[in-house]
Design brief:
Blueprint (H helix, E strand, L loop, with lengths): L10 E4 L6 E4 L7 E4 L2 H21 L21
Antiparallel strand pairs: 1-2, 2-3
Length: 79
């Protein structure tokens, strides 16, 4: 039986030093990865997500649900 497929929002952010990227999954606290390129970062976070979900299931914890509809926007403010 094939595993249920789920979608999660991933944030990919350039590293502060300008070399590479890091990725976080807000719905999976503690799930993050990095890479030299955006494509490498996407592959790495996909692997990290699979391992994170496997770990949650093994521990008997529920996999958090991603909201069906979510909006991601950037708002600029004076700082």
């Amino acid at each position: 039986m094939a595993a249920k497929r789920r979608k999660f929002r991933v944030e990919i952010i350039p590293e502060e030093d300008g070399i590479g990227y890091y990725a976080v999954v807000p719905s999976l606290p503690g799930c993050f990865s990095q890479g030299r390129t955006i494509e490498e970062t996407k592959r790495n976070i996909q692997k990290a997500m699979a391992l994170h979900i496997k770990s949650l299931k093994k521990a008997g914890e529920q996999v958090p649900a991603e909201p069906e509809e979510s909006y991601h926007i950037v708002i600029e403010v004076a700082a």
